[in-house]
Amino acid sequence: MTSVSIPRRMKGVQIKNFGDAEVLQYKTDLPVGVPGHGEVLVKNEFIGINYVDVYWRRGMMGIPPNGIIGREAEGTVVSTGAGDVNSLKVGDRVVWLAMGGYAEYTIVPASLAYPVPADIKPGVAAAALLQGLFAMSLSHKIVQVKEGNWALVHAAAGGVGLWLCQLLKALGAKTIGTASTAEKMKLAVENGADYVINYEEEKDLVKTIEEVTGGYGVDVVYDGIGKDQTQNNVNVVAKHGTIVTYGAASGFPAPISHATLTAKNIRFVGPAESALMRNIGGGFEKWCAKLFDTIANDKINVVIHDTYSLSEIVRAHKDLEARKTTGKVLAKP
Ligand SMILES: NC(=O)c1ccc[n+]([C@@H]2O[C@H](COP(=O)([O-])OP(=O)(O)OC[C@H]3O[C@@H](n4cnc5c(N)ncnc54)[C@H](OP(=O)(O)O)[C@@H]3O)[C@@H](O)[C@H]2O)c1
């Protein structure tokens, strides 16, 4: 077995209080843990930053273990715990989906670490895992989108948004994206959106979507924005359609009454990736294999906005919240 020297202290970001980006404290003396039964210790090289980290930081998701947030990273296994570790061994390059990613080292359940295929470029696995798996589950499982379906994707140039645009294109759906700038609109079109609307400038989003769809509306709405779009979503969804709300970048979505649902026989779904990843058909490994197969066959362009230093985590969060980013945000310890 290869032996790797593991320091006792590491760089990382800790939060002691919930709040704005300034609560993220960069430290260089956090303890490095020892993996327990069924766990591995990973030396992270690329850390995925997701909008959901903002909710954790604000205290909307619970208390992170050790005060360290971050749902995913890519790196190398440096130590394995006792018991079944899914055949992982020291030196394996993996990407993982668990908790505690804003650090140089993270202990993760071996069942949620997946070997990165050799043909995947460095950083791409960390950029793709959470947003890619989530977008795949939204388009293939939560709603099984069919050829010819109309889809509305809010924040189409964001991380999940660009994945959805590309996956929906591959499924033969017709996608209307929304975005806040001309640059973001262009990016959404380059990555599969058929139409894009600047929802900061468009006075009547509903009317425009009605015109684009010939009065039909959309079969599915994908919304990570929440409050600002709740009413528009109800108005544009077609009869028997589905509103999928999975985020609250503008605030929690307003309640939708039973009468509103029954008026058009619509479904309102609120999936969470933490539950999905454990329950998606075939499990985590099968979906990871599918994810990397999709990327390797050049079916998906994994757009990386920037790779920040972990010491610049406050700036990374501020940029994300100020809507300055597109695609994926990464950090390096
Ligand atoms: N439920 C789950 O398990 C799950 C899993 C993954 C992601 N999500 C959610 O999915 C959404 C997208 O995640 P992501 O990581 O891919 O982020 P992202 O889309 O890359 O970033 C958020 C985007 O939302 C748009 N936005 C609209 N109103 C906003 C506001 N008031 N404040 C901030 N941003 C606003 C911005 O795009 P424009 O400038 O174009 O408006 C911004 O770039 C987030 O809400 C996230 O929490 C949920």
TrEMBL record:
Keyword field: NADP, Oxidoreductase
Source organism superkingdom: Eukaryota
UniProt domain Enoyl reductase (ER): residue ranges: 19-331
SMART domains for this protein: PKS_ER (SM00829)
SUPFAM superfamilies for the chain: GroES-like, NAD(P)-binding Rossmann-fold domains
Assigned GO CC terms: cytosol
Keyword hit for Oxidoreductase: yes
A Pfam family reported for this protein in Swiss-Prot or TrEMBL: ADH_N
GO MF term (any one): quinone reductase (NADPH) activity
InterPro entries according to UniProt: ADH-like_C, ADH-like_N, ER, GroES-like_sf, NAD(P)-bd_dom_sf, QOR-like
NADP among keywords: yes
Name under which the protein is recorded: Enoyl reductase (ER) domain-containing protein
Organism of derivation: Talaromyces atroroseus
